[in-house]
Design goal:
With 408 residues, this protein is mainly alpha-helical. It has helices spanning 5-15, 70-93, 101-109, 118-128, 134-148, 160-169, 176-195, 227-234, 240-254, 260-265, 300-305, 315-318, 322-340, 349-361, 366-372, 381-384, 392-406; strands at residues 21-26, 35-43, 46-56, 268-270, 273-277, 290-294. Helices cover 48% and strands 10% of the residues. Strand 2 (35-43) and strand 3 (46-56) form a beta hairpin.
Length: 408
């Protein structure tokens, strides 16, 4: 009867004088607050650190100093198991030979010649493909990198369990699970077609035979709020996180739907205008998604209240990342909604609500609304190159919206 993995490890423990130990280590916080995870190998009186390229935010770590983010903990546990298995194979091969910790780590970290990397293939394939919208696939790679904390991923690690955990990490994001996992499936299929032939199989695993890419969730038809509900939010004057969330929501609405990432990152405030490049689309457009929004009188006290030093707002000094900032706002908005007795409202609805009120209540033309939201019309892209950008129309529209909202 063949030995199980557990039997093998018992055998190794009984026959080797000293088994190497493997554990994780959380590094010290960097300037941006992130902490890098390393794998520590202890063997023959020596200690060696292997970096993982997995980073933890403050919210990923419990008060006791353990890893509280389940998805990242699973990834780290997988890496530890992988190194333990490699150590067992090395020590079995070198029975009776004393290996230093440096020798051991060198052998277990040596990359196999035929170990193919998903990111390397994906980036090359995206460049040479005839995809119409390549940015969507690049966004998938960025999302995957954020999930695993590194920009390399052997195809062998893309398993049913891995895909399930990645899918779960996207829960609550309407189209993300369908879009990102669909793109990964497409890239994985192309890689198998490229590398697997009748005579060799370099990518033997096929996780998408079991894992089913989720379908798009139906769009939430109530992402916007009406003007009466907006007035209730504006009229709320709470303290703590709820008061902070209300302020951010009001700022976003009267800055023409400025999203949390741009509120967190914006750095230019001049002549009474906040000037920024919309983060979501700045890398996809020739104009780098530049926009200038006038600060209307009604929100000047809020802008002053949250004024920053190196950035327009001080949010980056309080929150380690824009994601944490956005989460804090939405958590606070739950308290606001409960306090004033309205349905659940999320921060991004401020953007939708500005557009809906501008169009349906005030009859502002769609072209102006599109410019105000810093969208771009592909059909007018060539014409736009000949027209100098003028932001006066969108700021006039914003003044009309503000007058309507604040009217009795």
């Amino acid at each position: 009867m063949p030995l199980s993995c557990q039997d093998c490890r018992k055998f190794a423990a009984q026959n080797f004088k000293e088994m190497a130990t493997v554990k994780s280590e959380i590094g010290k916080p960097k300037k941006d607050g992130l902490r890098k995870v390393s794998i520590i190998i202890c063997h023959s009186g020596g200690r060696k650190r292997i970096p993982t390229n997995i980073y933890l935010e403050a919210s990923d770590i419990t008060r006791s100093g353990n890893i509280g983010n389940k998805d990242k903990k699973h990834l780290i546990d997988d890496i530890i198991d992988k190194y333990r298995n490699r150590i067992y194979n090395v020590e079995l091969e070198y029975t009776g030979i004393a290996l230093s910790v440096d020798d051991l780590v060198s052998k277990i970290t040596a990359k196999k010649d035929n170990e193919l990397d998903f990111f390397t293939f994906a980036e090359e394939w995206i460049e040479r493909s005839k995809l119409k919208y390549k940015e969507g696939h690049r966004a998938t790679l960025n999302s995957l990198e954020k999930f695993i904390g590194r920009r390399n991923l052997p195809f062998s690690e893309i398993t049913y369990d891995f895909l399930t955990r990645y899918c779960n990490s996207l829960d609550g994001m309407q189209r993300a699970p369908s879009k990102h996992l669909g793109n990964i499936r497409q890239i994985f299929k192309e890689a198998r077609l490229t590398y697997n032939t009748e005579t060799q199989t370099l990518i033997p695993n096929s996780p998408f035979e079991r894992f089913k890419v989720p379908k798009d969730k139906p769009k939430n038809k109530e992402r916007d709020i009406d003007v009466e509900t907006l007035r209730k939010i504006i009229g709320y004057h709470g303290t703590g996180l709820a008061g902070f969330a209300r302020d951010c929501y009001v700022l976003s609405f009267f800055l023409i739907g400025m999203n949390s990432a741009d509120m967190y990152d914006a750095r230019t405030f001049k002549d009474g205008k906040i000037c920024y490049n919309r983060k979501k689309t700045r890398t996809r457009r020739d104009d780098e998604a530049y926009i200038e929004v006038e600060v209307i009188d009604e929100i000047k006290p809020l802008v002053k209240k949250y004024r920053g030093n190196s950035r327009v707002f001080s949010f980056s000094s309080k929150y380690v990342s824009e994601n944490n900032f956005n989460k804090a706002i939405n958590n606070g908005l739950k308290k606001v909604c409960t306090a004033i007795g309205i349905r659940k409202v999320e921060f991004y609805s401020a953007r939708h609500s500005w557009a809906t009120i501008a169009r349906n209540d005030l009859g502002i033309d769609k072209g102006t609304i599109s410019d105000a939201l810093n969208h771009i019309d592909d059909n007018m892209a060539i014409t736009d190159r000949y027209i100098k950008r003028d932001f006066s129309n969108i700021n006039i529209a914003n003044r009309k919206v503000a007058d309507y909202v604040f009217s009795l």
